[in-house]
């Protein structure tokens, strides 16, 4: 029996989860590694070679390293749950004229649920992942804060985790920079792992072509939505498009119309297969409504507070006033913000701490 107990570690075969597992092993935990098979790449209709966390190479890498360090390793097939929940939602959101955020959905409803279920079966007190984030217990709440490495921080994609999930989760890499993690891998003799390219694509769309993925998943979609109108904010028809699901808020490239100046997607109206386009200035909005809240630092907000709010993963954030109304958040920015996309995650920060987050429902002017 190890001196620190048993911990279940999600091992993707990449450098971060590998170092997390070995680090915990050296700290004295009895580590069990688990690699989750979420998706068969051949089902995506993609054109590139299979890569990423679900590839056979990655699964074999995870198993090989686990065995080398005396870590019991298993593979968990969650393709059915993943497909039914994450893939179906991804398609449904685009068909509803929204821009989905599948990584957040997967973390919250698939990976953590699967990890905790298996941890219970194996009598593991904790689970761990290779995310760059930190947690602590304060004022009877489990709080996520940004990882020490600002460039690698992944707290944005973890806003959906519940208090119960956080109470059993460890992020061993949260207090390190990526350069430290690479050096650890090199010190352990994993030169190839340290050089392994990182993927920032959606795991089930490895060629990053979500339009082809939608066409593959929804036979006949392209023909059924082709020929809708591009209009401006005054309702004037400016041309025809290839179908509303193939556009996203803020998109500039690929409109295939000449205007003499840059034009951007401002709004998507699925009911009429209409895409509203306009100048960059017209992308700016003063506020938004955020639905399906999950608050972490506080149980609820009893009065309006100021926060830094991020509307996409690589967003640097903007100062806003938050006002909770039941399970919605009214967010008013102190300066106009560009490209608020319904369906994306909005995450609220107080300093480095995650207050909570939710799904963007709509934007508004004041």
Characterise this structure.
This protein has 366 residues and is of the alpha/beta class. It has three domains: 6-130 and 172-195, HUPs (Rossmann fold); 224-278, Adenine nucleotide alpha hydrolases-like domains (SH3 type barrels), CATH 2.30.30; 283-364, Translation factors (Elongation Factor Tu (Ef-tu), domain 3). 26% of the residues lie in helices and 30% in strands. It has helices at residues 15-27, 56-68, 79-95, 102-121, 163-166, 178-187, 191-195, 210-217, 221-225, and strands at residues 6-10, 30-37, 72-77, 126-128, 133-138, 141-146, 169-170, 229-231, 237-240, 264-269, 274-278, 284-295, 305-310, 318-325, 328-338, 345-350, 353-364. A six-stranded antiparallel barrel has the order 12-15-14-13-16-17.
Look at the structure and name the CATH superfamily of the largest domain.
Answer: HUPs
Walk across the major sheet and give the strand order: 12-15-14-13-16-17
Overall structural class, as computed from helix and strand content, comes to alpha/beta
- Pick out the low-confidence regions: 47-51
Radius of gyration: 22 Å
